[in-house]
Structure formats: C-alpha cells, structure tokens
Specification:
CATH class: Alpha Beta
Radius of gyration: 17 Å
Number of helices: 8
CATH architecture: Alpha-Beta Barrel
Helix content: 25-40%
Strand content: 15-25%
Distance between the termini: 31 Å
Shape: globular
Order of helices and strands: EHEEHHEHEHEHEHEHE
Length: 247
C-alpha cells in the first residue's frame, strides 16, 4: 500500500484570488481573499509577447479588461496599462493586471501559499510552461513551501517539470479521459485536480493508492463540499470565500 507523503498546503483554496467577489487574478482579489481568512490562492499565469509572466485566465482581453484581442500578443508595457477591474464593479475601477512576481511578493510577505495554473495562449504551451516554472522556481527558491504548478495541458506540465523539476505539479482534468492517471504519473505529478463532480470513492482510492493527492475545482455549494470532505479529498478550490471558512 502506498503511503502518502505529508501535504503542506491548506485544504481550502481561493479561486483566482477571491472567487467572484472581486475582479479575478488582480491583487485586489487576493487581498480580499486574505481578508476572508484564506491562506492559499489559485491564479492563472500566461506570457506577454515580450516574455513577462502575468495573471489572466482568458486568451483574449475582452471579458476581464478594457483591452481587445489576444493578451499574449501584446508586450507587458501595453498590458500593464489596461483596466482589469471596471468590468467587475466601480469599486475596482482601474485595477491593473498583475505580474506573477507582484503576486509572489504579496504571498511571501504574508506567508501565503499559491497554486499557479499555467494557462498558455493557444500554441505556446511548451514555452509558457517552461517560463512560468523557471520564474516560479527563482521567486520561491527560499520559501519553505513551493507553489503548486497545475495545467490542463500535459505538454505545458512536461516543459515545467523539465525547467524546474523540484516544483510540485498537478494535472488538471475536466473529464476522466483515457490514461489520465497514467499521464499524471508519467509527468511526475503530486496531485490530480479534477472537476469536483468527477470524484467518487473508487477514483479517490485509485489516486491515493498511486501516491497522489486529490484536489477539486470549483466547489461553490455546501452539498458538494461535504461530499468531497467525506471522500477524503485533499484540496477544495472555491469561489465562495464568503460561504466556506478556510480555517
């Protein structure tokens, strides 16, 4: 029987900083998540045209900024001028896109943990995986607990593992496609991060039996959370920082 190694991360993880209570992937969101007692955060990281790692979920700018087109096509100087808060509410008008480096400073100053989802602009999976991992390794080299790198893209994780083999990785899955667990093991992952509806007693035991941890996204109601806790899963990523206590 495989013995699970100690898991250094909190069970509760604030999705994109503060879920839907603040503009996602902005420093304002992470501050709000921290104010609600959360000590671990999930963020999305991608590359600007000139190689700066910045936080944004979508490939395109329209939904969460006042910009247009593909974010990865622009240099950081242009991206840094965008308003990433007004789309959410007037309270956050003018909130800028942050770099991963800026978020890291915030997390390290407060002793927080971070789950960095590698979110490549389509076609840049390998270069983004390598760049995010290399930067994360440099920024967190003195930290007692490293960030957890995750991605839906196996090729991004493979590049991340090559660039920073000491950083823990997790495979994100929205469906249990053929060979998902074998791929996670092949990539040297420490966790599988699945759509919460996919977990059951059998596959939790299967993943734990392989020595990996089971995390879930995005859990926003008490019934789902209770089910996952009863199954013995290891991490819950939520938008509802106002509903679930992170204690």
């Amino acid at each position: 029987m495989t013995t699970l190694t100690p898991w250094p991360y909190p069970r509760w993880v604030a999705h994109r900083g503060a879920g839907k209570l603040a503009p996602e992937n902005t420093l304002a969101a992470f501050r709000l998540g921290a104010a609600h007692g959360y000590r671990m955060f999930e963020c999305d990281a991608k590359l600007s045209a000139d190689g700066v790692v910045f936080l944004m979920h979508d490939a395109t700018l329209e939904r969460t900024t006042n910009g247009h087109g593909t974010g990865g096509d622009l240099p950081w100087q242009d991206l840094s001028q965008l308003d990433a808060g007004s789309w959410h509410s007037r309270t956050f008008a003018g909130e800028p896109l942050p770099t991963l480096q800026a978020l890291t400073r915030f997390c390290q100053a407060n002793g927080f943990h971070l789950n960095i989802e590698i979110k490549p602009t389509p076609g840049t999976e390998t270069v983004t995986g390598a760049a995010v991992a290399q930067l994360a390794a440099e920024l967190w080299q003195a930290a007692p607990v490293p960030p957890l790198l995750t991605s839906f893209k196996p090729e991004a994780l493979a590049a991340a593992r090559q660039a920073a083999p000491n950083l823990p990785c997790g495979l994100l899955v929205d469906t249990l496609w053929e060979g998902w667990l074998a791929k996670a093991q092949e990539l040297g992952c420490v966790a599988v991060v699945a759509n919460h509806s996919l977990w059951n007693a059998n596959n939790v035991a299967q993943v734990h039996g392989a020595g990996l941890r089971c995390l879930s996204y995005t859990v926003n109601d008490q019934e789902a959370a209770g089910h996952l806790l009863a199954l013995g899963t290891d991490g819950i990523i939520t938008d509802r920082i106002d509903l679930f206590s992170a204690a």
